[in-house]
Design brief:
This protein has about 375 residues and is an all-alpha fold. Helices cover about 80% and strands about 0% of the residues.
Length: about 375
């Protein structure tokens, strides 16, 4: 097997594994809510520790990107993730739960930057776009994690046993596959955060990820609770599962869609799908309309992150790793605001109406994307002159 093909294969494995771990624990949020007897506001407050922890990891993630090949922080990120997932399953107090969830968020911050840096650098070795397929594999891993979780929830398997198994799989795959991913990808320039006037190129991309993160993170954290408490389904992972299936299918097609209609139109169509899907679930909160609505949201959110990270890799001011690190901070801000806000709105009003927040955020992708592409056209015209 050619070296770059082997690197693509094992990087695909790690994207899959990351998605598998993510949904394995987030699908258990309703279980955590019940076990600790939390109301929506209390759950929202606990979930707030995730973006805060991730923000605290910004200086370290930027330093790791500039100091090491991306495979090094990727390896340690998966090790920390395995430890934290076990911690969630074994936590017997709110303090231990918060510490474990905080470590999960910190781990995913490191993985988000290292995996996407690998993907962008590896894509340069190919004559076609492959970044969307990596994110499709992340979603596919998420589907696999949800299918396993759905089965284990139906079989009444304890959360501690479930998450311990996930951690063991993560460690085994990490120690085996880390030797086969891309090496020597540390950028020699653009690794320092430049303080001063914000770079509009990065700011617009950051805002796109910010609004997408509110929608995507909210679905990750609250879809199970929505199906359990609003739709009234005993196996509460159905909505989350269908959301992930539609996201995965769309992400595998993202590269071809972008080549066909362009990124600008793809952002617009993504926005419309998110808006329509949320409103369908809100106004018709029964099983099949909500399932269809969540599926539309999955289709809509799918392309936003791969497109935006690809554009980040084209920054003329920062290296791909540093650009992704900065933009990921906007994503974390979206996670900081979105899921906890839903918890507080749900507690003050009701969970169904609080989901309108996601519809408004999805709609914001249209003006933000238009501003970005307008800025890029003006910048390119100025350079030609």
């Amino acid at each position: 097997m050619e070296v770059k093909q082997r690197q693509r294969l094992f990087l695909s494995l790690f994207f899959f594994l990351s998605g598998f771990c993510f949904t394995s624990w987030t699908s258990r949020i309703p279980t955590i809510k019940t076990a600790f007897d939390l109301n929506e506001a209390e759950l929202g407050t606990i979930l707030l520790c995730m973006p805060i922890s991730s923000l605290l990891g910004l200086p370290l993630s930027g330093w790791l990107v500039s100091r090491y090949d991306s495979r090094v922080p990727m390896t340690w990120g998966f090790i920390a993730l395995a430890i934290s997932i076990v911690g969630v399953g074994l936590a017997h107090s709110t303090l231990l739960l918060v510490l474990a969830i905080s470590l999960i968020a910190f781990s995913f911050r490191i993985l988000n930057i290292s995996l996407n840096t690998q993907a962008i650098q590896l894509q340069k070795l190919y004559d076609k776009k492959i970044n969307g397929a990596f994110h499709g594999l992340w979603s596919t891993g998420g589907i696999a994690g949800l299918l396993v979780s759905t089965f284990l929830v139906a079989m009444d398997v304890p959360m501690s046993l479930h998450l311990a198994g996930v951690a063991l799989i993560t460690l085994a795959a990490t120690f085996y596959g880390r030797e086969f991913v891309l090496r020597n990808d540390r950028a020699t320039s653009g690794n320092r955060l430049v303080l001063g006037k914000p770079d509009p190129y990065i700011v617009y991309l950051g805002l796109l990820v910010f609004f997408a993160a509110i929608c995507e993170g909210g679905m990750f954290d609250w879809s199970g609770v929505f199906f359990k408490e609003v739709v009234g389904v005993e196996v509460f992972t159905w909505g989350y599962l269908f959301f992930m299936i539609c996201m995965a299918l769309s992400r595998f097609a993202t590269d071809k869609i972008v080549d066909s209609i362009g990124m600008a139109r793809t952002y617009i169509y993504s926005s419309v799908l998110i808006f329509a899907g949320i409103l369908l679930a809100v106004f018709f909160p029964s099983f099949y309309p909500s399932l269809l609505g969540f599926g539309l949201v999955g289709l809509g959110t799918a392309a936003v992150v791969p497109m935006t990270f690809t554009l980040a890799g084209q920054s003329k001011k920062y290296s791909p790793g540093m650009a992704i690190s900065i933009i990921a901070t906007y994503s974390i801000a979206g996670l900081l605001i979105g899921p906890p806000l839903i918890g507080y709105l749900a507690h003050a009003f009701n969970l169904r109406l609080s989901f309108v927040t996601f519809a408004v955020s999805g709609l914001m992708l249209i003006p933000m994307s238009q501003l970005f592409f307008r800025y890029r056209r003006v910048s390119e015209s100025s350079e030609v002159r």
